[in-house]
Design brief:
Layout (H helix, E strand, L loop, with lengths): L1 E6 L29 E4 L3 E3 L5 H7 L9 E3 L5 H4 L2 H4 L11 E4 L1 H10 L8 E4 L6 E3 L2 E7 L8 E6 L3 E5 L18 E5 L15 H11 L3 E5 L8 H11 L4 E3 L5 E3 L1
The protein binds zinc ion (ZN) (2 copies).
Length: 255
């Protein structure tokens, strides 16, 4: 399975407008982050952040191959680019699927009242496995804010789990997330730096990952004032171990 990180910031991009902090002034291209989204096997998109149009153009993604869109939850940083995605041309599949739980679809609908075309909604029940392009896909509920939010699990020969926004993974949802090949977690805050009520910290993520034992663990949804990519990478390697990393925009992993 191929995973391309299209964006790895939290709710607002980095650098922040007018900000002169160390991260926003960094010359390291890995410190320039747009809102969170990933592309699986060139064809399955997870989330439609406000920057999605430019992310797809800048990373030279062949958008004619996109045949499905999944959405973790209906917060602005994950859905406000949906409008741009409704103009996808020369599609290899006429009606790309919008594979989505009903409550997330309702949340998207509150923001996007126009037709969903060319996307064809396929409503899925949480914890139910559906198969798309030989990948078994399931949504499972996670605690984040007051709106419904899901983690996404994808299983082909390897297993990928995506949890960009999470304050707690309920005990009841942990079993299917154990021993996966790649676990991607919320990196919004580092201890008290950037901490909010609706996101767990990188330290809490490391603790969770040590319990779940993925082969590889990457943090995305990187918040402001947490640290530069270099500092955060050093932190997770020290506290987590060699299989812990910080994602960055344009990073491609093959698992
Ligand atoms: Zn978010
Ligand atoms: Zn969110």
């Amino acid at each position: 399975m191929k995973i391309l990180f299209l964006g790895t910031s939290a709710g607002w991009p980095l650098p922040r407008l007018g900000c002169d902090c160390q991260i926003c002034q960094s010359k390291d291209p890995r410190d320039k982050r747009l809102r969170p989204a990933v592309l699986i096997n060139d064809s399955i998109l997870i989330d439609a952040p406000p920057d999605i149009y430019h992310q797809l153009v800048n990373l030279k993604v062949d958008t004619t191959k996109i045949n499905a869109l999944l959405i973790t939850h209906a917060h602005p940083d994950h859905i406000h680019g949906f409008y741009d995605l409704t103009h996808l041309y020369n599609r290899q599949i006429k009606e790309p699927k919008l594979i989505i739980p009903l409550d997330v679809l309702n949340g998207l609908r509150q923001f996007h009242s126009l037709p969903l075309k060319p996307f064809k909604p396929e409503v899925v029940q949480p914890r139910t496995v559906i198969e798309h392009q030989k990948i078994k896909i399931s949504y499972f509920p996670v605690e984040h804010s007051r709106i419904p939010c899901y983690g996404i699990k994808m299983k082909a020969d390897k297993i990928f789990v995506y949890l960009p926004d999470i304050v707690r993974l309920p005990r009841s949802e942990r079993k299917p997330v154990r021993d996966v090949h790649l676990l991607v977690l919320d990196g919004s805050s580092l201890s008290k730096k950037g901490q909010t009520r609706i996101h767990q910290s990188i330290e809490e993520g490391i603790k969770l990952a040590k319990e779940l034992k993925p082969k590889l663990c990457y943090f995305t949804h990187i918040g402001h004032i947490t640290g530069t990519h270099k500092q955060l990478e050093a932190f997770v390697q020290k506290e987590g171990g060699r299989n812990f990393h910080i994602a960055y925009d344009g990073l491609e992993l093959e698992i």
